[in-house]
Amino acid sequence: MAPSILPPGHPIVSDVNTESSPICSYTDHYLQPLSILHPSYIKDTYEFVNKIRYTPIQSHWILFTMDVESLYTNMKLDLILETVREAFIENPNPFHPDEAILQLLALTLYNNDFEFNSQFFLQLCGVAMGRKYAPSTANIYLKKFDHAAMNLFHIHPLLYSRFLDDIFGIWPGTRSELLHFQNFLNCIIPGNKVTLTKLLSVPKLDFLDTQIYKKHNPDGTFILHTKVFFKPTQFLHHSSFHPSHTFKSIITSQFIRFKRISTTFHDFQQASSTLVRVLSSCGYSLPTLLKIKRNIWHNYQPSSQSINPPKELIPIITFFDKHHSLINQACKSILKSNPIFQHTRTLSAFCKHRTFLNHLIRGRYTSHNSMPF
Known about the structure:
Strand content: 15-25%
Largest sheet: 4 strands, antiparallel
Shape: globular
Order of helices and strands: HHEEHHHEEHHEEHEEEEHHHEHEH
Number of helices: 13
Distance between the termini: 31 Å
Radius of gyration: 25 Å
Mean pLDDT: 83
Strand order of the largest sheet: 1-10-9-8
Number of strands: 12
Low-confidence stretches: none
C-alpha cells in the first residue's frame, strides 16, 4: 500500500497573551495611524461599498481582484524596519519615540521563537500570526507596492483599493494587458507574489462580503451596484443555551448589514429571504424575523458620526448560569441608580465555567508515547 501524501505543514503560533504582547500593543499604538494614510486603504466593507457604489463604468472595462499570497509569512524583516522608518520620516511627530519604536519592533521581529514537539524554532522571515502590529506593518510594508501599482504601469487601474492582502480594481485595458500588469506587480517586492483571483467574466464579482455588478441604465450607461455575498457559514440554533438577547442581536445585525451593503431594495429582499429561510430552519420565529426585517429597512439609518460623545463603558462580567445572571443584573441596576455613573454605560457580559474539556487541553504538544493515558 502506497504511503499517503500529506500536504506541507503550515504552523501557526498564537501570540495572544505572551511575554511580547504588551510591547506589540505599544508599538501598534504608533504604527496604526500611519498605516491608514495611503490612498488605496480600505477600512472595512462599508467604506469599500461607499467608495465604489454608483461609479460610472464602461461596458468593456474589467473588474478584477488579486491576492497577495502569504503576506505575513513572506515579509522580509529588514524591509519591514526600513519601510516603518520611512513612514516615520514622512510623517514627523516630535512627541513620538520613533527610535524606541524601531528598537522594540526589531526586538520582537528578530526574536520570535517558539517551541513545538520539544524543539525550539526561530522565525527568520515574516511576522507572527496574531501579533498586534501585524496588520499595521503589512499596510506600511505594501505602501511602495500600492504606489507602483497605481502609477508606474503604462495603464493605470481605476479605483484601485486594498484590504490587507486583498486587492480590487477596475481595469480599462484588455485581459492580456492585465496579465502583464500582474507580472509587473510580482517584480516590485521580492518574495511577495500577487495572484489574479477573479475577473468579471460573469455578471457578479465577489470581494470581501459583497458582490459587485454592472447595472445597465436605460440610457445605455453602466454604473456599479453592490449586494450581499454569502459565504458558507453556520448560524446559532435557537435552542442553544445563550441569553435571549443574543438571538435578537444576531438577527438585527445581519439585516442592518444587508441594508448597508445592498444598493436596491431588490438586493436587500433577495439577501433577507435567504437569511429568513436559513434561520427559520434553525428554530427562529418567522413572524419575528419578518418584523425585524421590515423595521430595519424602513427605520434604520446609518449615522456618519455620533452626536453625543461616547460614554465610558463599564463591563459587568459573571459566569453564565442562573444565579450569576441574577447577580449581573442586580449590579447593573445598582450602577444605573447611582448618580456617580450617570455619564457611563454598563454592559452585561458572561464567561463560561471551566469544563472537563478545558482540563484535557494541554498548553504544550507532547508525543503519544509520553501521554499518561
